[in-house]
Amino acid sequence: MSTEAIDPKTLDRYECAGCGYMYEPAKGDNTSEIAGGTAFDDLPQDWRCPVCGARKPRFSNVGPVGNPSGFKENLGYGLGVNTLTPGQKNILIFGALALGVLFFLSLYGLQ
Ligand SMILES: [Zn+2]
Predict the structure, then answer these.
(1) Cα(23) to centroid of ligand 1, in Å?
(2) Separation of 38 CA from ligand 1 center, angstroms?
(3) How far is the CA of 66 from the centre of ligand 1 (A)?
(4) For the chain, what are the domain ranges?
(5) What is the number of other CB atoms lying within 10 angstroms of the CB of residue 73?
(6) pLDDT tens string 33-78
(7) Taking Cα atoms as reference points, which of 25, 11, 15 lies closest to residue 52?
(8) 41 Cα–ligand 1 center, Å
(9) Which of 23, 86, 100 is nearest to 54 (CA)?
(10) Strands laid side by side in the 22-23 sheet
(11) Do residues 15 and 24 make contact, with C-beta atoms less than 8 angstroms apart?
(12) Which CATH class is domain 1-69?
């Protein structure tokens, strides 16, 4: 499985309101023989909390591991922004150089 193929949705963890058990899609659930990489949404409807037996509706989405907010946005848009950055830097550098040249030219022009 390649990193690019992972649906960001599968990274979302769900916490049990009954006992605080955290379903982590990356790990799956050994008790119910759920393989790692299984999104919470893809769990069988009769899946229950392995600790207290609560049903799926009692779980709430607490987001992926790591960054609670903005992580999915980074997955989707981070690459685009990163590829633009070197070009924007070049524009800034050449713009600064041009301004510098104009500045010196204007100084010499005044004298
Ligand atoms: Zn539970």
Answers:
(1) 9
(2) 18
(3) 22
(4) 1-69, 79-111
(5) 11
(6) 999 999 999 999 999 999 999 999 999 999 987 655 544 544 544 4
(7) 15
(8) 17
(9) 23
(10) 22-23, 13-16, 59-63
(11) no
(12) mainly beta
